[in-house]
Amino acid sequence: MQQVNLSEDIYFLGFNDRRTHLFENIWPIPHGISYNSYLIVDEKIALVDTVERSFIDEYLDEIEGIIGDRAIDYLIINHMEPDHSGALKSIIQKYPDIKLVGNKKTFGFVESFYLTPKNVVEVYDDYRIDLGKHKLQFQMIPMVHWPETMVTYEETSKIVFSGDAFGSYGTLDGGIFDDEINLDFYEVEVMRYFTNIVGKYCPHTQRAIKKLAPLDIKMIAATHGPIWRSDLDWVLTRYNKWSSYDLDCGVVIVYGSMYGNTQRMAEVIARQLAVRGIKNIRVYDASKTHSSYIINDIFKYKGFIVGSPAYNNSLFPNVEILLSTIEHMAPKDHYLGVFGNYSWNGGGVKNLKLFAEKIKWEMVYDPIEEMGALKTDKKAELVKLANAMADKLLVEN
Ligand SMILES: Cc1cc2nc3c(=O)[nH]c(=O)nc-3n(C[C@H](O)[C@H](O)[C@H](O)COP(=O)(O)O)c2cc1C
Predict the structure, then answer these.
(1) CA distances from 124 to 107, 109, 394 (A)
(2) Binding site membership of 261 for ligand 1 (Cβ less than 6 Å)
(3) Rounded to the nearest whole angstrom, what is the distance from the C-alpha of residue 343 to the centroid of ligand 1?
(4) Across the strands, what pairs with 309?
(5) Which of 12, 65, 183, 319 pairs as cysteine with 308 (C-beta 3.0–4.6 A)?
(6) Which residues form the Flavodoxin-like domain (predicted)?
(7) pLDDT in tens, 303-354
């Protein structure tokens, strides 16, 4: 690839992964993902994070193409996850005197994944490393989204190397900086990356945003996706909104259904919400749409209504997977409605009630359960559930 610079002697070393289907072996990435590393060439040379292991050979070649036979002095480990530390052992083999820079939580992970680190610099908030013209300082942002996560701020160029924070799914298809690409495409990918990967850690993200606020930042260089240099507010505003559970007026309806009875119940609710003036209604079949996309919409809209048929005295499995993902992510401040269908002795709605107790979202209406085909009385109940949800949402808008 042609050389890409963030500033005169700060280099972008990024690789596009269009092969992997599931990020973290869970989340679909139909548009791929990039792994971004950065090289600062000064009196001392620092490498900021590395890349996923399948790119090691090209990565080492690119580094050598820039620094020739000079050695790298520091490897900054902002984040230890293997998609960023995958080349760590190869880097140490090639540059045996390199110092690993991390915080007190980093090196335990290095040891458990790769090797016993020997040459280390343990950093903490405001710790500084002088490279010559460039000066690095470090800020800890734990749990965004691993315990050891930190960011590196380069004071001369005012670049923050943010690790996974402000990252995105989607490869960098030629354009690397925010002003080189159409952000409409990344709108979805940035949010899905946030909700899938960082979303559980919203309070930590809020703390990180506040902690970084005093820094004079001209550029944000994350480990995935575009580098933000022209419109930093674009990504900062969105991160702030999402991580503070600032939800829009709308409803996500999810159902599982084998024979169509539960689906028909969902359609009644959706129609009545529309009649009441709710414009953002997203109806998903949990067997068809991956939870990555459904979770994303749950982070957008305040209303959530879920329906499940009984299945072996429990929830329909694909609904169960989604609800367990929601429990892990624990997004806050939603309104909830539940409904279901059965033929024998039930099991779906019984377990939806347990979900409601655990998630502690406000139930807008009593659970509704139909046996087989939808009859008039239960249809009227579903309309009332939709009305109760609309009442709650419209009063706030
Ligand atoms: C594998 C399987 C397990 C089921 N388990 C139960 C059950 O435990 N309790 C029950 O009342 N109905 C059970 N049912 C019946 C369905 O819940 C019922 O027919 C329901 O109406 C299906 O809803 P649907 O039309 O939305 O698929 C089961 C059906 C299947 C295929």
Answers:
(1) 13, 17, 47
(2) yes
(3) 6
(4) 341
(5) 319
(6) 251-394
(7) 999 999 999 999 999 999 999 999 999 999 999 999 999 999 999 999 999 9
